[in-house]
Known about the structure:
The chain has 66 residues and is α+β, with helices and mostly antiparallel strands. The protein has two helices and three strands. Strand 2 (34-36) and strand 3 form a beta hairpin. Helix 1 (7-14) packs across helix 2 (18-26). The longest helix has 9 residues, at 18-26. The chain is elongated and about 60 Å long. The model has no long low-confidence stretch (mean pLDDT 90).
Amino acid sequence: xxxxxxxxxxxxRWDISERQVQILCVNGRIKGATRFAKVWAIPVDAEKPTxxxxxxxxxxxxxxxx
Length: 66
């Protein structure tokens, strides 16, 4: 399909997993993404969605004395 890319192509372009692209499509986070039967068609000019929830900080490193 001209003008569209697959989930696999989007995952490679955005450096995320294919499953994460599918989740973004299901949640309506990718503008113009359309589902044909069991295949997602993502517009070639679609931008990678940004995070809406900030990342939680990890544990603080322990101080080493001595």
